[in-house]
Amino acid sequence: MCKVADAVTSAHEGGREAEHGGGRGGRGHVLIAADKFKGSLTAVAVAERVTAGLRGVVPDLPVRALPVADGGDGTVDAAVAAGFERREVRVTGPLGTEVVAAYALREGTAVVEMAEASGLQRLPDGVFAPLTATTYGTGELIRAALDAGARTLVFGVGGSATTDGGAGMLAALGARFLDAAGQPVAPGGGPLRDLASADLSGLDARLAEAEIVLASDVDNPLTGPKGAPAVYGPQKGASPEDVAALDAALAHYAQVLAGTAGPRALEYAEAPGAGAAGGIGYGALVGLGASFRPGIEVMLDVLGFGPALAGAQLVITGEGSLDEQTLHGKAPAGVAAAARAAGVEVIAVCGRLALPPSALGTAGIRRAYALTDIEPDPARCIAEAGPLLERLAGNIARDYVT
């Protein structure tokens, strides 16, 4: 069976080069491996702006760009930037209406991002459906990847609009969830309170032959004080009453699944990653036979970070906000850890910096440059993120490259 690490092929050739890149005169390259600045710049745009800023000071500087993601929204875009083919398919959105979602494919390996089909980005502004939003479209997206020949699936989860424990995803792949009258339960996490029986025997047989890696930056369990409804429900519009209802419904869901899948269904409810993306992590562990790995770790493998790092003199990583969450599995922390292990110095860029130098140092980041260092108005930082980031990159070139 294909392994995720084997997805790193010669097509990377040490990572995609920004513009012409390449080492001139024996000088080591600068590797830009940053995540998006959410709400301002995609990871690809961050790499472009940093490259422009660096080369504005050192015109012949060899630069390689490897946009990264940690499994959440932007994961497919990062894979496409690394050489995967973008595939689009019409699927069911979180509210039941049709949306066009994308996955990435290369040589039998698919990168599937649940936010493409079932994410908050698929909801109209100001509209939430905490009890009824469904992951059915994510299951359709997985099926499309299998139809295209994928036998290794990197399943990135995050940014979900849903809290249905992955029941919708599994239903799209052939599972049956019935109420006491023998009728399919309604979509969403709330209706799982009415679940009387679950049948996983109809799941797509190709799932058993595929390697499926659950890539997430969170390790929450399914339910309880640190579970999916309590921790992430409110950001999806869930009231305190909704959170309680969803927590009870998901606990009941796990109990019913235990009658079908055995005690492991209850064990998986407590496993790291089960609570990811409204509990879709749980559905992937129980129904898809997925294995859990930190999202940035698996994405660095798939994107070819190791080959891109070879020969680098400096790594520039970053994301919109460098804060406590960054230290717990977010992309910059993963990039810094991998670069530090290889003995390469790491600098970070961000919109907002909320970490002291000591925390940055512990994470392997020598220094962080924030947009707010040169523009104190947060609104202007967001509106003018691109030009400001170029200015920061110029400062980095003066401080660390020239």
TrEMBL record:
Is Transferase given among the entry's keywords? yes
Q: Does the keyword Transmembrane apply?
A: no
> Recorded GO terms, molecular function?
glycerate kinase activity
- Superkingdom of origin organism: Bacteria
Please provide an example of a Pfam family that matches this protein in its UniProt record: Gly_kinase
Keywords of the record, alphabetical order, are: Kinase, Transferase
Q: Where are the transmembrane segments?
A: none
Q: Which GO terms describe its biological process?
A: organic acid phosphorylation
Q: Name the protein family.
A: Belongs to the glycerate kinase type-1 family.
By what name is this protein known?
Answer: Glycerate kinase
Q: Which organism is it from?
A: Streptomyces longispororuber
Taxonomic lineage per UniProt?
Answer: Bacteria, Bacillati, Actinomycetota, Actinomycetes, Kitasatosporales
